[in-house]
Amino acid sequence: MIKRFMFPLLFLVLAYFVLSYESAKEIIAGIAIFLVGMFFMEDGFKLFSGGFLEKILEKFTNSMPKAILNGFLITSVVQSSSLTSVILISFLGASLIALESAIYVLLGSSLGSSTTAWLISLFGLKIKISHYAMPILAFGIFFRFSKIAKYKGFGNILLGLGFIFLGISYMVVGFEELKQSVDLSVYSNDSLSTMIIFFAIGTIMTFIVQSSSASIAITLVALSSGQILYLNAIALVLGGKIGSTATTILGSLSSNANGKRLALAQFILNLIAVFFGTIFLFPVIDFIEFISLKLQISSDTVKLAIFVTIFNLSAVILLIPFLSKLVAKLKRLFIPKIKSWSKLEFLDAQSLESSKSILVGLEKENKILYSKFLKASKYQIELLEIGFKHKKLEDKKSQRVLKLIKVYKEKIKTLHDEILEYLVYANKNIDENEIKSIEKQKQNTQNINKVLKSLKSLYKTILEDYEDKSSSIKDEYKAIRNIIDIVLKELENLQNITTLDDIDKILKLKTLHKKILSFDSLRNQRADELLKMSKESIKDISKLLKTSSFATLICHDMVKLANEVLIENSLFIEVEDDEDEN
Predict the structure, then answer these.
(1) Contact 316, 113 (CB under 8 A)
(2) Residue 449: count of CB within 10 angstroms of its CB
(3) Which of 101, 135, 314, 319 stands the most exposed, by the fewest C-beta atoms within 10 Å?
(4) Residue 503, number of CB atoms within 10 A of its CB
């Protein structure tokens, strides 16, 4: 409801300023161009890095110093803490990064956002950057039309940089013109009421433009033009910190539990920064003045950049000692009271930000699907045993098993369908390097469902053939059932024992593969013996052999599924191949 009325209201306010003040056109156009530049920069780094940023976050965040340093460097380079946050949320959704590590990166990202203030105060306001914007835009357009993703990404980065330069230039000109018609400095003073007003303006401004970098740029340009005082600029920065928090919280509403926890951690971080900046405002200002005198700094914009750095750094230093307790508290939050089994746990809208997140999330969803498949197969085996004992399917145990089979079949079908639907939607976000791996996982999803259908068909065939047969034939069908039961128990143990590494799992699967072959050979020998003894008809023996071969094939398929789902980056070597080599 709020969003429905906010957009028209903001549009009317914007239209009023554009129509009322000629200089406002320059300022608003500058803000718009700056935001377009930020968009191109973010998109460009995604394409140009080719997943490099994701790889850095995945591999170099295993300790607090590394995570903070990488958060600082990435945000400093891409000039977007929001891009870092989006990647972090997608990684948390796919469990590629722990919540503690994500918060450490967030701390570094908060420090990295200070570089925006330094770049603008040192270069953006002292050099006529509009002269550099045009050639940068020209080269950006040239690379932008390349069919190679990296070149296209590099073109977007240049376009983003050019638009940011151009936007700052327009804002500088706009504030200078505005000063001629409306001198805002008349309304600027260091009273408490004025500071509160500027704090509120900073909050609203950052929330509207959806970028703390753009908010800092506007503040620095207004300060350099003399439209606001140094203290008012500090109030705008403090308010902007709260405004950026509101943006993060809104962005996390559609994310999973860890995404919400990360947003809350950022909210706490920003609150600490604002609290420190407010409580120790004048001591910090005196300290900055002392440094400025020693280093002969006279520019208020550079002093503001120092303030931004100090109050971001203070929040990080104050939060680090309490991080372990904070993480423990956060993990107890946002836990759903009722968890729907059919909902995807590791694939959501946030996972779309990274091909790696999609792949890892898909692998984890397939493990869940495989676990449900094993349970459904176990209940099918139990129902088959009930059928062998000639128990009526109306008794309580039979009804319970039938209900469980139905539940798990529905679970598997729902999860199977949701995974495939998600992949159709995610197809356009998948990087070329991950296509083969994701296709392989997609095949695993489909194969799990196919094997379950095959098992259902096998059990139906066995029960049909079991009726009105001699005890010898019935024993053979029971033996087939026992083989499947052994295979399922072995696969369940393989899944549940967490201490096994991939080599151990491969060896166990190869051993199970040999067992299946030996069981199949034994079944064939038993069928031949029954045929030679003329105890059974050729028709019954033929049906038995056909069913036995079908069961063996399904057991092999289950072993292959276990290899694909439970073992990472491994190849299962068929036992026949080993025998041929020997």
Answers:
(1) no
(2) 19
(3) 135
(4) 10
Half-sphere exposure of residue 85: CA atoms within 13 angstroms, side-chain side: 28
Q: What is the DSSP letter of 394?
A: T
Inter-residue contact 380 to 456 (CB < 8 Å)? yes
Q: What pTM was estimated for this model as a whole? A: 0.55
- Distance between CA atoms of 270 and 288, rounded to whole angstroms? 21
pLDDT per residue as tens digits for the range 547-564: 888 888 999 899 998 988
d(CA 150, CA 540): 65
Angle formed by the axes of helices 149-181 and 22-49, to 10°?
160
d(CA 434, CA 358): 9
Question: What is the distance between the alpha carbons of residues 363 and 564, in angstroms, rounded to a whole number?
Answer: 10
Whats the size of the chain, residue-wise?
A: 582
Give 278-283 contacts, CB < 8 A, sequence gap 24+: 278/238, 280/314, 281/234
In the chain, what's the furthest Cα-to-Cα distance? 113
For 67-88, the pLDDT digits (tens) are 888 888 877 776 666 657 766 7
Q: Do 316 and 65 form a contact (C-beta atoms < 8 A)?
A: no
- The angle subtended at Cα 42 by Cα 115 and Cα 419, nearest 5°, is 135
Query: Would you state the structure tokens that stand for residue 433, as one six-digit string?
Result: 């390097």
| Lookup result for tokens 């051993």 | 511
pLDDT of residue 328: 85
Distance of alpha carbon 483 from alpha carbon 228, whole angstroms: 82
**473: Cα separation from own chain's centroid:** 54
Which residues 6+ apart lie within 8 Å of 545 measured at CB? 523, 524, 527
Q: Which two tokens stand for residue 426?
A: 């995610």
Residue 578 has a pLDDT of 42
| Measured CA angle at 454 (ends 519, 507), to 5 deg | 45
> Under a CB-based contact definition with an 8 Å cutoff, are residues 524 and 548 in contact?
yes
Distance, CA of 92 to CA of 58 (rounded, Å): 11
What average pLDDT does range 423-446 have in this prediction? 81
The Cα 480–Cα 548 span in angstroms is 7
Helix 81-93 and helix 230-252: axis angle, to 10°?
Answer: 20
Q: H-type helices in 145-184, by residue range?
A: 149-181
